[in-house]
Design brief:
By secondary structure, the chain is α/β, with parallel strands linked by helices. It contains twelve helices and 20 strands. The chain has two domains: 314 residues, Adenylosuccinate Synthetase, subunit A, domain 1 (Adenylosuccinate Synthetase, Chain A, domain 1), CATH 3.40.440; 101 residues, Adenylosuccinate Synthetase, subunit A, domain 2 (Orthogonal Bundle). The radius of gyration is 22 Å and the shape is globular. The relative contact order is 0.16. Bound molecules: guanosine-5'-diphosphate, 6-O-phosphoryl inosine monophosphate and magnesium ion.
């Protein structure tokens, strides 16, 4: 085998908290420096926001390099795809000036989310009652469960002659599971709009469109591209604290959101991974249920929500808000081998005279700087250190200028606590509102 021109040509970008850290924005900023952007896990539960030229775009399934015509975008085998949502997203991107039919490639090994997966998601959540996970109801849990149970349908199956029979068998099984949970599909509306049969009709129409898309064996495509010296950026969805293995189980999503998911979700070896970019908000948010030690239930939490416009990109739900959690962040850095941090939404803290940071947890009188087995352990309390706020608007420093001292101290505090340099500071949702502190990768001119 010839020596690849760029043995570590794949960089990874992923969220270090509970999702919504600003991954979409940074992928969009970085994508001109990559040939390929590839999603490796998750599905339409993601909502990745991009802002440029005064326009806002929210992507769910399609990688965030899609608005760069020269960048190829791959939906990898580890992603689960709802063809109807994909179709809607393609139409929105086209309306926004993108050309996804040209620069979007979809793995034939990616599994399909069926309409009845979505029904089952709702049935399972309803059965859990107050203990529900707060799922996005996109069918994520049931579709990944189907994959692991080894009777899922894959994108590549949409050409097989026995597809109608296989679909009908799985559908019937799902309906019996929902009935066992006491769930009545009559009157249930998907996306609060479509009855099951209406959604199914649209889903099947969307399969026709999917048949006409560029469907590939993405593991071969990506490895070949790397061998040719091309550069690949793997775009994570959700965040480390929602990882199926390492998140606050069971209040997690159903995939590996951590760096290991890149290898199984794209078919690349660990030895090909170069940088791991960790995206972290300057505070914390979480949407859905589950433990959140630094959550603020008071006016400060509301101020973070209002200032940061913390409402879900996928479901519109208000996000729970709280201070930065360093034990959780260090855990995420450890699990992912993060090489650079990207500090997001620092502008949201502009008006705060004082900023708290959780440096440890106290439990039954003892302190720990590591996260425990169960983040929801009764009595677990965050231990805070107060830092001075910068109390001013932030602008990109001109040559010779520096960031406000208090912001600089905040950044250094995070760098010291994690041992990872903060390469980029984000000061607003737009592409342009991005401060590069130091060159972190061989960016193209
Ligand atoms: P993702 O899921 O990680 O891609 O993040 P989301 O798009 O769900 O949520 C991040 C939100 O914050 C979006 O509305 C972004 O437009 C916005 N955003 C990203 N970076 C910044 C920033 O530095 N400052 C502010 N104020 N908003 C930002
Ligand atoms: P991005 O990629 C924030 C949360 C849901 C719920 C839990 C399980 O935009 O950061 P699921 O639908 O996966 O079964 O929901 O995970 N969740 C997210 N929270 N950002 C996301 O994605 C999320 N995707 C799922 O709110 O608590
Ligand atoms: Mg999001």
């Amino acid at each position: 085998m010839s020596h690849p021109a760029n043995p570590k040509g794949l960089d990874v970008l992923l969220g270090l908290q509970w999702g919504d850290e600003g991954k979409g924005k940074i992928v969009d900023v970085l994508s001109p420096h990559y040939d390929i952007v590839a999603r490796f896990q998750g599905g339409p539960n993601a909502g990745h926001t991009l802002e440029f030229n005064g326009q806002k775009h929210v992507l769910h399934l399609i990688p965030s390099g899609i608005f760069r015509p020269e960048t190829l975008n791959v939906i990898g085998n580890g992603v689960i795809v709802d063809p109807f949502i994909l179709q809607q997203e393609i139409a929105e991107i086209e309306a926004g000036g993108g050309q996804p039919r040209h620069n979007l490639l979809i793995s034939r090994k990616a599994h399909l989310i069926l309409p009845t997966h979505r029904l089952l998601d709702a049935a399972q959540e309803a059965a859990k009652g107050k203990d529900c996970i707060g799922s996005t109801l996109k069918g994520i849990g049931p579709a990944y469960a189907e994959k692991i149970a080894r009777h899922g349908l894959r994108v590549g199956d949409i050409f097989s002659s026995d597809l109608p029979q296989r679909y009908a068998r799985i559908r019937e099984y799902h309906l019996s599971l929902a009935a066992n949970l006491g769930f009545d599909p009559q009157g249930f509306l998907l996306d609060r709009k479509y009855s099951l049969s209406e959604y199914e009709a649209r889903w099947h129409e969307a399969l026709d469109q999917l048949r006409g898309m560029k469907l590939i064996d993405s593991e071969h495509f990506i490895n070949r591209s790397l061998d040719q010296g091309k550069r690949v950026l793997a775009e994570g969805a959700q965040g480390t604290m929602l990882d199926i293995d390492f998140g606050s189980y069971p209040f997690v999503t159903s995939s590996n959101t951590t760096v290991a998911g890149v290898c199984s979700g794209l078919g690349v070896a660990p030895s090909r991974i170069g940088q791991v970019f960790g995206i972290v908000k300057a505070y914390c948010t979480r949407v859905g249920s589950g433990p959140f030690p630094t959550e603020l239930m008071d006016a400060t939490g509301q101020l973070l929500r209002d200032t940061g416009r913390e409402y879900g990109s996928t479901t519109g739900r208000p996000r729970r808000c709280g201070w930065l959690d360093l034990p959780a962040l260090r855990y995420a850095v450890m699990l992912n081998g993060v090489t650079r941090l990207f500090l997001m939404k620092t502008d949201v803290l502009n008006a705060f005279p004082e900023i708290s940071v959780c440096t440890a947890y106290s439990m039954n009188g003892s302190h720990s700087t590591e996260i425990p087995y169960d983040l929801g352990t009764p009595g677990l309390q965050p231990v805070y250190q107060q830092l001075e706020g910068w109390q001013q608007e932030i602008h990109t420093p001109k040559p010779g200028e520096s960031l406000p001292d208090a912001l600089d101290r905040y950044i250094r505090f995070i760098e010291e606590a994690t041992g990872v340099p903060v390469a980029v500071v984000s000061i607003g949702p737009d592409r342009e509102e991005t401060i590069v502190r130091h060159n972190f990768v061989n960016l193209r001119a």
